[in-house]
Amino acid sequence: MTTYDPDRSRTGLTPLDRRELLKDANRLLAMPARRRFLRSGVTLGSLAAMTGCSVTDSKTAESLLMAVSRFNDRVQAWLFDPNRLAPTYPESMITRPFPFNAYYGIDKVPSVAASGFRLQVSGRVQQADSWTLEQLAALPQQEQITRHICVEGWSAIGRWGGVPFSHFLARIGADLGSKYVGFKCADDYYESIDMPTALHPQTILALTYDGRTLPAQYGFPMKLRMPTKLGYKNPKHILEIFVTNEYPGGYWEDQGYNWFGGS
Amino acid sequence: MSTATTASPQTVASDAGPGGIVQPAWVRVTHWLNALGAILMVLSGWRIYNASPIFPFRFPASITLGGWLGGALQWHFAAMWLLVVNGLVYLSLNLLTGRARRRFLPLSPRQFASDLAAALHGHLSHEDVARYNAVQKVAYVGAAALLVLLVLSGLAIWKSVQFPLLRALMGGYDNARIVHFLAMSGVVAFFVVHVTMVALVPRTLRAMILGR
């Protein structure tokens, strides 16, 4: 699915090898950041020790912070109002150009071939069939002009169109009492969301951006658009959707971002 | 610091409580927990700010907390509980015990102006640390108000969809970030002046640790 440097003879690597290598490299790149995080934990541990708390080593600090993050997941799930709509905006307020954003540069955007593409569906569903883009386009469509809020703080207003995700979940006979909906993507990104957000009226399986077929840099063939979640929760280049009760984690969450990540 | 000239004529009778206690235990505990919470929030907040600055500068990474954005966010969203819960305890006890009224009232603009003028000339007395002059009253109430504003603007940023009224009050999502930043700047400015004043009148530090 992902096209990288086609010059195999020079590197001697198959596309699959290269993908795995890139994946490892990205993991390793994330490691120094994690070590810095741990080191800061030590400093703050000392600070906390001065004040009488027992957070004296980084492991304790890190697991404590992760525990609070899990607690914050529950608080956010409780705060989440399934009927509360994110604000929508007039077309004149769309951010142009809408920023490209991913854990890789724009030159590494995966190009997924439209012909022969099939979205895989699995897990706690009655119809684990695959879907062509034509079949998805034939489902009811919905448009929204909403604000994309990045975990970094910046925001941008964009226009997405696609299938209301609650409709899609109903069509595949998803067990709506399940805890999670998970996503596997062509850029090796993976993500998972809570069922109430999956069923939110503004959560759409986006197939278009600004009235045109979703371009590669915004997530072709499809992106899950949720104006009630931060940007990293909105997976692009989706290849597979699964419904599960087993916590699937997420690309950034497994490195420390909060899982609920809701606005 | 001259003790001969006093701007406030009522510094003769001490306002200290039974046993000469100037700061009751609950004030001391909530004060230091608030200091810890605010410092953690500011240092991790600087790291989060650096991920996408709203002004043309970044904070030196070495003085920030968290190591990377994800770590800073974890600290920020953990320390917020300390800041908020402790702040609510502090505010509630201030109202319930009547300390807020005794310590911060009366407060007149005229008194503030004359005390500020005296303070700037180094003539403001701190003979009785149990009695706040008008400048102190404004500074402490102002710092508390800024912390409340920080929590509200922070909520508007964190939960901009779930709290539409708060979002509107802050002037929208993007503006809430600016309000959050400016309120933080105010708290940091207070911190600098506060610590400087404590260095000039060390008895106040003793009172905030030992109570008298």
Features:
heterodimer; A: 263 residues; alpha+beta; Sulfite Oxidase, Chain A, domain 2; 2 domains; five-stranded antiparallel sheet; four-stranded mixed sheet; 9 strands; 30% helix; disordered N terminus; B: 212 residues; mainly alpha; Fumarate Reductase Cytochrome B subunit; 0% strand; globular
Commentary on this structure:
The complex is a heterodimer of chains A (263) and B (212). Chain A is of the alpha+beta class and 263 residues long. Chain A has helices spanning 8-11, 15-50, 58-79, 133-137, 165-171, 195-198; strands at residues 120-123, 142-149, 155-164, 180-185, 190-194, 204-209, 212-213, 223-225, 238-244. Chain A has 2 domains: 8-79, no CATH class; 91-255, Oxidoreductase, molybdopterin-binding domain (Sulfite Oxidase, Chain A, domain 2, Alpha-Beta Complex), CATH 3.90.420.10. Chain A is globular. Chain B has 212 residues and is mostly helical. Chain B has one domain (19-210): Transmembrane di-heme cytochromes, Chain C (Fumarate Reductase Cytochrome B subunit). Chain B has helices spanning 25-51, 69-96, 99-104, 109-120, 134-158, 164-169, 173-200, 203-210. In chain B, helix 1 runs antiparallel to helix 2 and helix 5 (134-158) packs antiparallel against helix 7 (173-200). The two termini of chain B are 20 Å apart. The A-B interface holds A 33-41, 43-44, 47-48, 51, 64-66, 68-69, 72, 76, 79-81, 84-87, 147, 149-155, 227-228, 252, 255-258, 262-263 and B 32, 36, 40, 48-49, 51-52, 54, 65-71, 73-75, 77-78, 81, 157-162, 164, 167, 173-174, 177.
